[in-house]
Amino acid sequence: MYDCIIIGGGPAGLSAAVNMAQRGKQAVVLTAGESLLAKAELVNNYLGLPEMSGSEMMDTFEKHVRQMNVEIKHAKASNVLANDGDFAVNIGDDILTSKSIILACGAAKAKPVSGESEFLGRGVSYCATCDGMLYRNRNVAVWGLSEEAVHEANFLNGIGCKVMYVAGQYPDGLDEKITYVHGRIEEINGEATVKTFLCGGVSYSADCIFILRQAVPTDALISGIEMNGTHVIINENGATNIEGVYAAGDMTGTPYQVSKAVGDAQCAALSCSKYIDDKNRGQK
Ligand SMILES: Cc1cc2nc3c(=O)[nH]c(=O)nc-3n(C[C@H](O)[C@H](O)[C@H](O)COP(=O)(O)OP(=O)(O)OC[C@H]3O[C@@H](n4cnc5c(N)ncnc54)[C@H](O)[C@@H]3O)c2cc1C
Fold first, then answer.
1. What is the second-level CATH architecture of the domain 2-108+216-280?
2. Ligand 1 within 6 A of 103 CB?
3. Do 2-108+216-280 and 124-213 fold alike per CATH?
4. What is the position in ligand 1's atom list of the atom closest to the CA of 91?
5. Residue 13 — pLDDT band, cuts 50, 70, 90?
6. pLDDT tens, 95-119?
């Protein structure tokens, strides 16, 4: 079991990692894809590292984290479950456990479509390997918005689901038994569970819709977390409303800036480290 699982490998997640290591805590960083910072041509307002491109800055941060012997895993966290004071994090075909969580997932990148939040867990899923077996021999749709979506669609086809693949263009590597539907999902409908979805104004039948984005909406990633719009609410210590769960960086609000993300994350990591010490002493 890790002391802490840090979800997100941007400046906030990496700053949290360095600070956890500095406090002697065993942490792992999970990261689903590139940090937003990698897109910056030139960053000139980060103290001590002038005139760097965003990707050079990320390389510098990652090098520091590796020097501190913190593992960076390229994996998307699809779900965090609180379990008797500890946490289980689903990363597709594996589950990692920890005493605490630091969320550093960046600013929200996608708005849920109509019906998505309503039917989450009742025919909307973010993880094919977790929920696929429930839909063997049934109609499912995969909305392919991330690199791993084709692999997941082929997995569902392999276990006996009748798969439709919805995307803006036909992807390489899709199993020929899978029906391709061109477009984007506009609406999800049903009664107790999902029955249909709308794409290009046409209604298709499906018992489950796997929405495979690069990132997972925060309130779907961890149930019960308090949000203000798309931002996670934290206190002055970086703590969320869920004991043992901290958050930092763009996902907690503006300004969307590297220094703020790194500073927030240090504050969250120091509070989290104290939380772990108290827990280890049996005071939590
Ligand atoms: C073009 C551009 C220029 C910019 N220029 C500047 C500048 O000059 N100065 C400045 O201070 N700021 C600048 N910024 C802003 C800066 O990039 C952000 O403030 C900073 O990257 C926020 O860091 P973060 O760690 O909070 O989030 P991010 O950098 O967005 O990192 C979040 C990480 O979390 C990962 N993730 C998300 N969900 C999951 C999940 N479920 N499982 C696993 N991993 C997950 C993502 O893949 C990503 O790697 C710029 C941004 C852009 C786009």
1. 3-Layer(bba) Sandwich (3.50)
2. no
3. yes
4. 42
5. very high
6. 999 999 999 999 987 778 999 988 9
Q: What is the mean pLDDT of residues 218-226?
A: 89
Give the CA radius of gyration of the chain. 20
CA distances (Å), origin 258, targets 27, 89, 102, 187, 254: 21, 26, 17, 35, 11
Helix (H) and strand (E) counts for the chain? 6, 17
Other CB atoms closer than 10 Å to residue 49's CB: what's the count? 14
Q: Indicate the domain borders of the chain.
A: 2-108+216-280, 124-213
- Global pTM value: 0.86
Q: Which atom of ligand 1 is nearest to the CA of 256?
A: 19
Q: What is the mean pLDDT of residues 8-13?
A: 97
Q: Which fold has domain 124-213?
A: FAD/NAD(P)-binding domain (3.50.50)
Closest-CA residue, ligand 1 atom 26, reads 249
Q: How far apart are CA 96 and CA 15, in angstroms?
A: 21
